[in-house]
Design goal:
By secondary structure, this protein is α/β, with parallel strands linked by helices. The protein is built from 12 helices and 10 strands.
């Protein structure tokens, strides 16, 4: 007896998927298995490496024999895609399969029973209400910081640290991502920086980006101390942990910095997020995405 959660996307997406699975399995008092077979592209989403093993998260990979027969069907992509476009037919044929039906919180998730396969992104903290402390304990580094990240961590602890995240790469270079997600404007960052500056004495900005050279060039206007972080993508879990150590946060429209800010346990933290999360996704109801205490600009 177990539930299975599909993990797909980058580290932030994987954490939402794990948190959903942790919450559901805890309620059912059952085992959580993760389908981490990222050798396939899921719904056209470009896959990433499985990254949860870099944290103190207990991971058990679902095997083919655990998949309730679903893994066999998944190999027939054309048939599966047909079923995916016809939800009623799919639910009738696959009663153990529960896809994400809405981007907003879906309370029916917790009506599902053992031996259910969950497929979606599940991007709201409402799914893991009540297990926040346990999640924060698990989403800690399994190994010590690299020497570079430890140096940055020491600096963060000595300052009024503000994490600022800029997501670019595929949001810029991939046409579909560019249209769907879009990127946060410099006007957004300028407004967010001004908001922080009016409320925080001597802020020090720590700029995290998947485009280091761009961030170095485009934040020269800052009149406060700032540090551009140069960890590569293979240290994304260290960057997320460094973000969580900051006292204030300016996030991008990215699940990665969403988690960097959420993992900061301080009650008095300030988190600024973009009001418009998607550039062109009118069907995605984002009302539950951002916690109520976060500032939307």
């Amino acid at each position: 007896m177990a539930i299975i959660v599909k993990t797909v996307g980058g580290l932030g997406n994987q954490l939402f998927q794990y948190a959903l699975g942790k919450a559901v399995s805890s309620r059912l008092n059952t085992e959580l298995l993760l389908d981490i077979d990222t050798s396939v592209i899921w719904q056209g989403v470009r896959v990433h490496e499985f990254s949860l093993g870099n944290f103190n998260i207990p991971v058990r990979k679902a095997r083919g024999t655990d998949m309730f027969g679903f893994v066999a069907l998944r190999r027939h992509k054309k048939f599966f895609n047909f079923l995916y476009r016809h939800l009623r037919l799919k639910r009738k044929l696959l009663p153990f399969y529960y896809p994400e039906r809405t981007f907003a919180y879906d309370p029916d998730v917790f009506l599902q029973k053992n031996n259910t396969y969950f497929d979606g992104f599940w991007q709201t903290e409402k799914y893991f209400h009540g297990i926040e402390s346990e999640l924060r304990k698990q989403i800690t580094l399994a190994k010590p910081f690299s020497e570079y990240s430890q140096t940055i961590s020491n600096e963060i602890k000595k300052t009024n640290a503000v994490s600022l995240h800029v997501r670019r790469t595929d949001y810029v270079t991939d046409p579909k991502s560019s249209v769907f997600h879009g990127i946060c404007s410099m006007q957004y960052y300028q407004k967010a920086i001004e908001y922080i500056a009016q409320r925080v004495d001597s802020p020090h900005f720590f700029i995290f980006s998947d485009d280091y050279e761009w961030s170095v060039e485009n934040f020269k206007f800052l009149q406060f101390p700032y540090t551009c972080i140069s960890n590569g993508a293979d240290k994304n879990y260290e960057d997320m942990t460094l973000m969580s150590q900051c006292q204030y946060h300016i996030i991008a429209n990215s699940s990665f910095s969403w988690w960097g800010a959420w993992l900061d346990p301080r009650k008095d933290k300030i988190v600024i997020a973009p009001k418009q999360w998607f550039a062109n996704a009118p069907k995605n109801d984002t009302k539950d995405l951002l916690p109520d205490t976060w500032i939307k600009l």
